[in-house]
Structures are given as C-alpha cells and as structure tokens.
Hints:
single chain, mainly alpha
Amino acid sequence: MFKRMTESIRLFITDVRGEMKKVSFPSRSETLGSTTVVIVFCILMSLYLSVIDSFLVWLVGKLI
C-alpha cells in the first residue's frame, strides 16, 4: 500500500511539472494593462451606480 501511494504521489508531481511547462504567464506590461482596464472599469461602474442610486432615492422621495 505504501509503495502504491508513493508511486501515485510521484506520478502526480510529474504530471504537475508537465502541465506547468505548458503555462504561459503574462508579461509585466500585459499585467499592468489588464490591471488598468479593471480599475478604470470599476471606477466607471461605481460612478454609474452612484448616479442611478441617487436618481432612485430622489424618485422614491418624490413618490412618498
């Protein structure tokens, strides 16, 4: 049983190493570009939702 478990772990580690060789990591400029897009999108969405929320609060205030 111990031998089979050791062989299973060894096979797993070999497979992980093989898969890690296939991975392509983004360059620094790609990472900075993606981060910038995400931050700008978050800011725009927060402004949009703030305007919608303010409008709805004003609308409900007028109805009540």
